[in-house]
Every structure is written in structure tokens, then in C-alpha cells.
Amino acid sequence: MRKLFQEDLLNLGDQLADIAVLVAEAMDKAYRSFETADVQLAEEVIAADQRIDAKQVDLDEKAIELLALQGPVAADLRLVVGALRMSTSLERMGDLARHIAQLTRLRYPDTVSPTALVTVYREMAEKCHSIAKKLVELLVTRQLDLVDEIVALNEQIDELHAGVFITIAKPDWDASPASTADATLASRFFERFGDHGVSVAHKVQYLVTGEWETKPTA
Amino acid sequence: MRKLFQEDLLNLGDQLADIAVLVAEAMDKAYRSFETADVQLAEEVIAADQRIDAKQVDLDEKAIELLALQGPVAADLRLVVGALRMSTSLERMGDLARHIAQLTRLRYPDTVSPTALVTVYREMAEKCHSIAKKLVELLVTRQLDLVDEIVALNEQIDELHAGVFITIAKPDWDASPASTADATLASRFFERFGDHGVSVAHKVQYLVTGEWETKPTA
């Protein structure tokens, strides 16, 4: 029984990694749709989010079943509870990628991004995509140096996010108010995506080391 | 032992209600600070958010202890897992109230809200406050008609949120781009607060009835 349970715990980790793969793909496609006003790609991201949601439900049911049938304690219990929390964060990251795609669809055939912010968003999106890919690697390998890399990427996203507001407040900002609102939301979506990524990374770290790295809340 | 456990479960409900009381208070004060540019009140909300965070950590530790010591199954297990999830949503609602207060502080001594949106934000904030107060009542009384009331309030918030973007896109919108960005974020914070409120309400409903009311994700 004990052996089976350890296998179940490893399966939870694999399920989390599977979700993270889909999240990384969602962010990559969402951003490409956003930059190029590719409404078909946007629709793909929006539809694919249901798969992420379904996988989260599966994982959560599996975790609750483990709690019920195995009554884990100590580190194993923390791992199952941690998996429940990580799945929530990953699901939310999928939602945020979908929100980016929804902005694409809303403004089609126009592009969402004002010209002044195209490169900023591209950088934010690349860093978001990179965070999601590193989460996959972290969940599979438990190489904790990836946590610091994810934290660093998120700090860069936060700086870019702050920069968006500076750009918007500049005298030469000439986008329409509606476009300014879209630009604000898009930046916020990238920023939240990064925060959730850090949250997942810190949970993996905690489960591996038993030490909680406190993170200032966003 | 069995009796003690039922008492522990009731205590979890009380702890959730305690957090919801603080969240309701935070939203009320955050909005008053936002409308009147009362930076002192805003600072109070920002500082008080740490109490919400600490109470969430307490509740989560208690819930994990229950899982470890009592190995609950079936409905009791769902209740403990549900409590963990509700605490996450409530903590997030506290964060969103704090974000409103942070906007107040950022723009002080100016008010954040463009004149055209003062009444809209007031309505959104009142509905958010009302949702949080109804959550307290729901957690204490388990009167499920409150769930529908919370869902209805959230729909009204969503409509007001959509209205903000219509207002911003109108030709007579004359707020500065920075103010447009603030206005967008504020509206988003209220909207997310309502969504989390519905999420908590649906979890209470599920725990009472055993039937999951699916909710389209935001």
C-alpha cells in the first residue's frame, strides 16, 4: 500500500507538469495572437482553456481521493495539499492567457497593442512563457535553482508592468482611451501570470526543502 | 473523538466567517478612502490586510492539522478541503480591497476616480461590500438563498464593469491617460472581488447540498 501511495504522489506531480505544459503553450499562442491580431489562434487558446480546467478538476479529484483513501500525514499530506494549491494557480494562469486571447478577439481586426508598447508586451509575454516552461522543468526535475530564475523573471515582468504606466503617463502617449484601457488590462494579465508562477515555484520549493520562502503578496 | 472533530469543523466555519468580516470592513474602508482621497484610511486598510493574511495562515494550519490528526473522509473531507479553498479566495478579496486603497495612496492628494465614474464605482463598491457581508451571513447561517443574492450582485458588478469600458470609449471622455489606466484597474479590482465572492458562495452551497453549481470562469 505504501509503495502505491508514493507512486500516486509522483503521479500528482506529473499531472501538475502536464497542466503547466498546456499553460506554457496557452501563453505562447495567446501572445502570438495578440501581437498579430490572429483571431483564429486566439479562438484556439480560448477553446483550449477548457482542457486546462478539466485537467485541474481531475487532479483535484485525485488528490481528494488520496486524502480519503490513504490519510497521508506529515510531508505527504503537505504534498497533496500543495498539489491542490498549485493546480489552482496553474488553472488561473490558463485563465490569464485566455484573457490575453480574448483581448485579441475583442479588438480584431485591429491589434490590441498601441505601437509604443509592442516590444514591452513581447518581452513580458516571453518572460511569462519562460516562467511556465521553467515550472514544467521544476515540477519534473525539482531542481531548485529554477525557483530563483522564476523569481528573477517575475521581477523583470513587474518592472516592465511599472514601465507601462510610465509610458501611458508620458506627454507623447497618443492611444485612444479605449486602447489605453486595453493596454492596462493586458499588462495586468501578464503581471498576474508571473505572480502565480512564482507562487507555484515557492510551493515546490517548500515541498522539497520543508522551508517556506515568504513572498510579499502582490 | 468524533464529537470533538465536528466541533473542529464548526470552528473552521467560524474562522472563515471571521475573515469574511475583516474582508467586508476592508472593502468598505478602501472604497471610502478611494472616493474621498483619505490617505490615512487607505493606510489603515493596507496595514489591516496583514491581519487577514495571518488569519488565513492560521486557518490553513488548522485545516491541515485536522487532515493529519483526524483523517476525515467523505463530506467531512470535502469540508476541510473546501475551507482551504475558501480561505484562499477570502485572502484574495482582502488583497483586492488593499489594491483599491493603494490606488488612493498612489494618487493622493488627488482622488483616483474621474468624475464620470464616481457613482459607478460607488455602486460597484457597495455591491462588493454587500457580497462580503452576505458571505459572513452565509458562513454563519448556511441560508442558501444568500447564494443567489450574491450571484445576482456579482452580475450587477459585471454589468457596471462592462459599463466602465463603454464610458471610457465615449467621445466626451476627457480623463488623462494615467487616470484612464487607474480607472481600468479599479474597475477590474471590484470585478475580481465579486468573482471571488461568488466562488466562496458556491463552495458553501456545494458543502451544504453536495451538488456543485458550475460557474463559468471569469
From TrEMBL, chains A, B:
Example of a GO biological process term:
intracellular phosphate ion homeostasis
Question: Which UniProt keywords are listed?
Answer: Cytoplasm, Phosphate transport, Transport
Q: Which InterPro entries would you find in this protein's record?
A: PhoU, PhoU-like_sf, PhoU_dom
Does the UniProt entry include the keyword RNA-binding? no
Stored Pfam families: PhoU
GO cellular component term, pick one: cytoplasm
Limits of the PhoU domain: 18-103, 122-203
* Compartments in which it is found: Cytoplasm
The cross-references to Gene3D superfamilies, in alphabetical order and at most eight, read: Phosphate transport system protein phou homolog 2, domain 2 (1.20.58.220)
Per its UniProt entry, which superkingdom is the organism in? Bacteria
How does it associate, per the subunit comment?
A: Homodimer.
So what does this one do?
Plays a role in the regulation of phosphate uptake.
Entry's family note? Belongs to the PhoU family.
Which protein, by its recorded name, is this? Phosphate-specific transport system accessory protein PhoU
Q: Which organism is it from?
A: Nesterenkonia sedimenti
Output the lineage of the source organism: Bacteria, Bacillati, Actinomycetota, Actinomycetes, Micrococcales
Q: What would be the name of the gene that encodes this protein?
A: phoU
